């Protein structure tokens, strides 16, 4: 940056310098290429030789995208694929769900989850009496099955017989109930008929009295009047 000036000749191979002490020192930023994968600039100004290792921290998400990890830039840029896969794992169980519905058992990993589910599940026979614990993947692939044994079949037969007997008993009970209701209804109907007959008889008796009471009462009343008159005359 200075005007044209005198420069002391030096051996550039001795200390790596290309200028004499009279020249200004370069204060521009280092523009040397960075290691592959490093997004940071060199922390030193313009300098000879290699840049120092980058010790800044990178903030990245783990494979399962649930945790934030802080990793030294140097470790990540110098690691191979296997080491990078381990560095970017949060070391927790993978939260992804397998097609069978169970959670992946692997530690936080890259790529797709393995389809081979090792979760233990209970397999039952058709009648639900027998049970056995097997790997979920084997059951889904149809590699194993659990059939009913002779005892299961015998119990099923007995249960069917008991069910049929209960159904027959229920039908018989329903018939008895209906018969009882029918008899009660017929008894009530008979009682109503008797009451109606009695009422008709009473009405018939009452109608005969009302029909002849005038012919009966008039002579009786006349006799009573005559007797009363006779008594009055006798007393005088």
The strands making up the biggest β-sheet line up spatially as 1-2
Order of helices and strands: HEEHHEEHH
Largest sheet: 2 strands, antiparallel
Mean model confidence by pLDDT: 82
By DSSP (H or I, 4+ residues per run), the number of helices equals 5
What is the alpha-carbon Rg in Å? 59 Å
Helix coverage percent: 40-55%
Estimate what percentage of residues fall within beta strands: 5-15%
**Oligomeric state:** single chain
Number-wise, the strands total 4
Shape: elongated
Distance between the termini: 182 Å
In the predicted model, the low-confidence regions spanning at least 5 consecutive residues are: none
Protein structure class: mainly alpha
Protein name: NF-X1-type domain-containing protein
Family: Belongs to the NFX1 family.
InterPro entries: NFX1_fam, Znf_NFX1
Transmembrane segments: 215-233
Outline of the structure:
Pfam families: zf-NF-X1 (PF01422). This protein has 236 residues and is mostly helical.
């Amino acid at each position: 940056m200075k005007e044209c000036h005198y420069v002391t000749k030096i051996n550039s191979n001795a200390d790596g310098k290309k200028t004499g002490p009279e020249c200004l020192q370069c204060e521009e930023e280092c523009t040397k290429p960075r290691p592959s994968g490093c997004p940071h600039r060199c922390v030193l100004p313009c300098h000879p030789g290699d840049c120092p290792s980058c010790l800044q921290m990178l903030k990245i998400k783990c494979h399962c995208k649930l945790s934030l990890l802080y990793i030294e830039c140097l470790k990540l840029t110098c690691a191979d694929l296997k080491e990078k896969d381990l560095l970017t794992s949060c070391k927790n169980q993978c939260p992804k769900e397998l097609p069978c519905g169970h959670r992946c058992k692997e530690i936080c990993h890259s790529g797709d989850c393995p389809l081979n589910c090792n979760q233990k599940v209970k397999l039952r026979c058709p009648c639900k009496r027998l049970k056995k614990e097997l790997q979920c993947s084997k059951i889904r692939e149809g590699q194993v099955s659990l059939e009913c044994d002779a005892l299961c079949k015998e119990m099923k037969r007995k249960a069917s017989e008991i069910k049929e007997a209960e159904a027959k008993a229920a039908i018989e009970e329903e018939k008895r109930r209906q018969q009882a209701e029918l008899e009660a209804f017929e008894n009530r109907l008979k009682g109503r008929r008797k009451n109606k007959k009695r009422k008709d008889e009473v009405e018939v008796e009452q109608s005969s009295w009302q029909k002849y009471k005038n012919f009966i009462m008039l002579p009786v009343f006349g006799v009573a009047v005559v007797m009363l008159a006779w008594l009055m005359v006798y007393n005088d």
